[in-house]
Amino acid sequence: MISFSPIQTSTTQTPPAATSSARTSLLPSHHHHHSDQLSLSPSAPQPIHSRRRRRLHCVRAIDAVQPYDYEAYLFNRFSQSSKLKIAVVGFGNFGQFLAKAFIRQGHTVFAHSRSNYHAVAQSLGAAFFSDPHDLCEQHPDVILVCTSIISMESVLRSLPLQRLRRNTLFVDVLSVKEFPKNIFLQVLPHHFDILCTHPMFGPESGKHTWQNLPFVFDKVRIGNEDSRNNRVETFLDIFKKEGCTMVEMSCAEHDKYAAGSQFITHTMGRILEKLQLESTPINTKGYETLLNLVENTASDSFDLYYGLFMYNKNAMEQLERLDLAFEALKKELFGHLHEALRKQLFGKSEEGIHRRPMLAKLPKNGTPLLPPQSEAVINKNN
Ligand code: NAP
After folding, report:
1. What pLDDT band is residue 134 in, cutting at 50, 70 and 90?
2. Compositional bias (Low complexity) spans (predicted)?
3. Ligand 1 atom having least distance to the Cα of 155
């Protein structure tokens, strides 16, 4: 346990817990007569008599009675400074999921949504405001936009920004990134900070832990002051503390990667859902992963999936690639079948003349697709 000199403690802000009577009784009786000692600077040379007097005030014994619980006081002050008031705008599936973690970590959560989530918010320990004016008058440190992708712009434009503190931090968690970044830059006055993020997990995949799950962020516009930078770090710390893998990346880069990974995943999940797959008594591990994929993607709203498609300019190309890949695969299968049939029909006489067509892979992601008239299947004889 560390012990502190009353001189040092008295130079800090008076903690609320320390009543004046407690201070009078616990501090050395002559303490308040020597107000000059309160401003001792460690760097300034002190006259000898002053240094001697200072030593008189030092608490040397480790377990000496302290004027108040100074360590607890320091700890509280530190943790207060690392706590944020976060306004979650869009308190649906994902907004509530995030709010739980914020509250668990001791942050204050305000919520606002189109629907009434008073009871849900209360049960989680958040305060719900149906009227956005009331929400903004709480002067949150962070406005966290958690609405559907397709409603984000209208929701943002409906917020009474003039009621917020001038340096409020705006964060979004939309599953596409260039779109909200551009809307934020268009709509928000320059005195607001902007952080675009995408937690690469949801209420299903992050149900048990966020350990090692990627969290993508782009500090789009953060003012120069230390306090603004600290606030962003405090917000990011929430995800670090949960064990997320923090990935700083531009919104454009995110959208390129996400179309080729997340959009494909959701599309495959939705295709499989249409097949109405069912568990069997002889499921393979691979089949289990397909069933899990359906479960993971089907619980997300169609608005979310539609947003991934409409608001990521790379998504359309991915649909075309899927189409081409499926066609090419069918051609390869039918090519094999065709060859087997011909062998049966014509026997060895054809050997060496016809060779099985080979499936060409599609060009890698990011490379332009073949023009529609060209063949994805190349006959090596041609
Ligand atoms: P969502 O369907 O994408 O969004 C639902 C939220 O949008 C609800 O809060 C809903 O409000 C609000 N909303 C929808 N239409 C609205 C409108 N016309 N006006 C006002 N508000 C409207 O589902 P979600 O899963 O909760 O996702 C929320 C955001 O998080 C999305 O941007 C999504 O891309 C992102 N995200 C989701 C996941 C995930 O796994 N679910 C992961 C990462 C990021 P009410 O509930 O009040 O109607």
Report:
1. very high
2. 1-28
3. 20
